Amino acid sequence: MRIVPFEQLKPKVVSPGLREDTKNWVEWLVLGGVLLLAALPRLTSLNAFLAHDETHYWTWSHDFFMALLQGNWTGTIVGPGNPSITIFLSHSLVMGLKYGWAWFNGVQATALATWPDFQLEPTLDLLIQRRMPLIIFNILAIILAYRLLHRLYGRWVALTAAILLALDPFFLADSRTSRGEGLLASLALLAILAYLNYWLYGHRSYLFFSGLMAGLALLTKISAISLIGWAGLAALILLGYFKWQEFQEGDKQSTPLWGSLLHFDFIKPLAAVWLSWIVLAIATFWLLWPAMWVAPLQALGHVAAFVSDVGVSGRENFFFGQLYTDQLLPLYYPVVYILRVTPLAVLGLVAAFGYLGQTYFRRSKPGRQWQFFPALMGGHQPLLTVLLLLFALIYGLLMTIGTLKRDWYLLPIFPVLDVVAAIGWVWLGQNWGRRWLNRIRPERAAVGAVAAMLLVQMATILPVHPYYYFYWNPLVLGDLWAGDSLQVGWDLDLSAGADYLNSKPNAAQLRVATRSTRGFTQIFKGQTIRWVPEQPWIQADYIILRRYHLQREKLEPYMADYLAHLKLDHVVKIEGVDYLWIYEGPRAQYFAGPSTLAGKATLLGYDLSQRQAAPGQTITAKFYWQNQGMTPADDFFLQLVDANQYVWAETTATPLPAFERAAQTDKYIVESHAGLTIPVGTPPGTYFLRAGVFDQARQETLGVFSLANEGSQVTVTKPASIPQVDLSITQRIEQEVAPQLFLLGFDLPQNTLFLSRPTWLSLYWQAGDHLKQDYVMAIQLLDQHGQEAAYWLGRPVFSGYPTSAWSVGESVRDPWQLELPAAVVPGDYTLQVTLFDAATEAQAGQTKLGPVTVLKRPQRFEIPALPNSVNVQLGEQVTLLGYDLSTEPLTGGGRLRLTLYWQAGQKLAASYTVFAHLLNAEGQVVAQHDGLPAEGAISTPDWAVGEVIADRHLIEFNNLAPGDYRLIVGMYDPATGERLRVAGGENSVFLETLPIN
Predict the structure, then answer these.
(1) Using one digit for the tens of pLDDT, what is the confidence trace for 697-720?
(2) Which CATH architecture has domain 731-855?
(3) Which of 369, 401, 463, 935 pairs with 273 at a CA distance of 20 to 30 A?
């Protein structure tokens, strides 16, 4: 028994009715047409888009090229590990040519380091240059595929396949980028077709070329390893086919078929060819990746890590409206193919199955027994078609096994199945064309059919030019359900959005916020802002929302709510699918940082109607902030302060009507409005805006936000005419202290000064006539014997507005910060104002303001509104009125912010320590805070009878097991350790049970 020589297996054309002996010039004309067909859509409008990962490949290629320049072969282990070496080599080719040409022209290497080509951030024109080697190869691959198919199936199958390949929108989309799937598809197709040519014709050049393409495919994507399994199965099936032929032609009784298949003469060529092919592929892989020369295990480990990441590790996949993790999703890739295939390809594929069915299951003789193998003797094309389908099946199964699913991962089967579809169309023309077109010459009918297919395929891709990735199969109404079934976008949605925004008249001045900036920045003419909390997205003119982010559940509910308040400017809709929504942005005038008050709010930005105003005029402000725990008792305030932090004016910002619900919802974004009127009496000068949160229940400022420097200064100008208004003065005097200088009155809260902190005194003056003198003022604190206990000397308004500059009838508020010396003792005093002529230092006038009281610290006797009321008495002296506790969800590590409110029923002699303990189920203390009341500022002996003390504690904890924990508080004498007891004998007060997750 012998194997049939390759030379005896001549190719038999599927369509024998069509002539193949055309002249050479016709063949060259066809090749030129195929070249034009493949090149035009791949080389046009390259500046209109950036595809997914292209900018990443720029960075990885930069590292790869620098490693090559430095001879650092191990440094060529870069990128994600898939391994993409062919892409890095093609990019390095472009950089190397530029580098070499510059070096040849005398440019120093140090200067080259500043070239845009060698920077980490790409530009669009340079990215297009990086694409060119891969695009040219993909174009040539279609030419080569045409020639290889011509040898296997004849011109008409080859020409039909070339049309389908050149204008397949899914294949076209990737084969005009610097990504890997399109290149892998080209390499795999060439490897397969050359391998089949070798088995039919025996020319070693085919085997060498196939192994080279397979090695390049492995260097591109490790999924090309499927070619190895396919090549082995293809060799086994083809040799089996040859053996069957030999068996049919020889003595069927002398040697059983299965015995021949196990004979060494059968296994030897199978193993020799397959292993030789594998060696060629591995040698290519080794030779073209420098890291394999010096650190092969490290390089292969890098690839293995990638395989583990995408094939084993849990990754999210969007499929039919849901995100899945770790599921195989066996229907994912069938759905991808149904949605991505063109009508001509899918109809041709159906016809190909008809062709195979007719070939393999036709009746060989009358009777009802269907036969299989005898049909193989009619030609090799059906078997080759089965082998093409076998590769698609193997590759599809390999992709299904991996946990990470992306539609472009299936791309390598599309060119192969396009070839199968071409076979189906030619078979359909051969069998059915004769019945319908029997009066037309076959050659003319074939030319007409090919021209019609060309027109149909062009009509398929033109509506999605230049964004071919947005094609969906119209036969299954793909545009109606693709966006809800598969992850879409591929970053081309950003390209389309940038193209729309670039069409606006002032595009270069626009600011656009988007979650995904890479790929958008290179195309958009204006400023790109990353749509993340720490960036000034609140100032954006437009905000981009991608369907991709909705599919990946990356849009937070609070942000979706805020977008609903914005005006929708444009929808990027291509072929019936909404990919991108462009909203008019808030266009905030100033960015706030953002500035956060923990547990309350984050100020994102704000607008000001003006930054210059005169007394009596109003500055309108609009605030953009995020609710992070605001309560109805919290006020968002806006103040006008000077450099000394004196508050000249204050107002409350109220949510706009459309944002009232958001103001009560945690994390939601709110727009608030405030009108700040410059009070009459405010001297001209530079002032500052200050915004913050005030707790009405506690009557204290919880914090202030940091405002933008350029947006916080306000200039108060002198009014053109003196406003005639009645000033709000708490204590009026209306006395002429110096000639034509009247003291209208003053403000001093509760007529009280404190030793623990400064107190603001506001004097109100009015010029009765034009004042020629400048005055110096002295504020004196006189005790009950008329002796000076303290004094403060200066000119009006922090020496910033001399009296000689005052207009006739002008009222001026004059603030003084009164900080008492430590020697002053609490008690009753009198405040006195004395004026001196600044030039002569002679006393010009004097008046007493009235009695004041000096206390050690501010005291509060009104019981505030308490979030949690307790009213438990400890001992016979102290009452725990209630408490306030932070309510954010608790985990094993975190902190509790606790505020206790105490009231003394009588004077306390002992200095008690307050404790706050967190107990587990066994009653053990797992976290605590012990300390003097009010953070050590007010010891219990200093409490006044009936005074309310706000006592804050911070309890920090780590590594707590999930469960319920009890929070208790109390007081003890640190000298004895004895706790104050409550009614019933308990030595602590239970507040509440806290669940730890």
Answers:
(1) 777 888 899 888 788 899 999 988
(2) Distorted Sandwich (2.70)
(3) 401
